Amino acid sequence: MGFLDFVNDAGLSTLDSWTCTRSYIVGYGPSQADVSCFKAIKSPPEAAKFPHAYRWYKHIASYEPEFSSLPGDPSKPYTTYGPEKSELTVNPKDAPDASAAAEEDEDDLFGSEDESEDEEAKKVKEANLAAYKKKKEGKSKPAAKSIVTLDVKPWDDETDMKQLEANMRGIEMDGLTWGASKLVPVGYGISKLQVNLVVEDEKVSIDDLQAQIEGDTDYVQSTDVAAMQKL
Fold first, then answer.
1. Is 222 helix (H, G, I), strand (E, B) or coil?
2. Chain segment 112-167, per-residue pLDDT in tens
3. pLDDT per residue over 81-111, tens digit each?
4. Hey, which residues does 176 pair with through a beta bridge?
């Protein structure tokens, strides 16, 4: 018969009985079925009289900014949802034990495969599963990076260190970022260029980079890795 008019206690009692073992009107996630029923209720159910309906109402209210994007058919009236026959409890002592229902895991997106599902519940579950997969696929692992300190040694004390550094920094590689540098005396008036750089491990080979720097044979005698650590 579906839900009754929520403006009276009879309708709210039906909703309370329905939500006593459910977190959502259909399926295992919020849908347009919840939106339709939520909008049909003029004010929150009384917690003392309808604890399960109140819990459901407050939970669905948290999705209010997302109502338009929830899966399901927004044109369906709330009366199309609910029990096929009245689930009102005449005698309170005959009401089902709802202690476990209050602790039901509301984060279960997909539910149990063993439970019978109507078409609406299947559609909601499939939509939630698709959204979950899309969100999971959108997450990519950050690229592994290393910070490297290179020593670049000139031929002698007459080498133009500014030109040496300019030539070195002219090397461009995808995943290579040049950092700060300084001249470090090594003796006999000669200084080596010590430079920091950050590389993406999968894109930049330090051996290849050293080979390119050492290819500047007019200025560079050799290079060494002074330090290297993962970021």
1. strand
2. 444 555 777 788 888 888 887 777 776 666 789 999 999 999 999 999 999 999 99
3. 988 764 444 344 444 454 444 445 444 545 5
4. 199
Range list of β-strands (E), 155-189: 176-187
Give the separation between CA 98 and CA 89, rounded to whole angstroms: 13
**How would residue 7 be classed by pLDDT, with cut points 50, 70 and 90?**
confident
Closest CA to 15 of 32, 38, 35: 38
Expressed in percent and rounded to 5, the helix, strand and coil fractions of the chain are 35, 20, 45
Consecutive H or E run containing 146: strand 145-154
Query: Which residues does residue 200 pair with via DSSP β-bridges, in sequence order?
Result: 145
CB-count exposure of residue 43 (10 Å: 0-12, 13-18, 19+): exposed
Number of neighbouring beta carbons within 10 Å of residue 183: 14
**Which two tokens mark 105?**
């895991």
Q: Which amino acid is at 122?
A: K
On whether the CB atoms of residues 19 and 54 are closer than 8 A, the answer is no
- Average confidence (pLDDT) over 8-33: 92
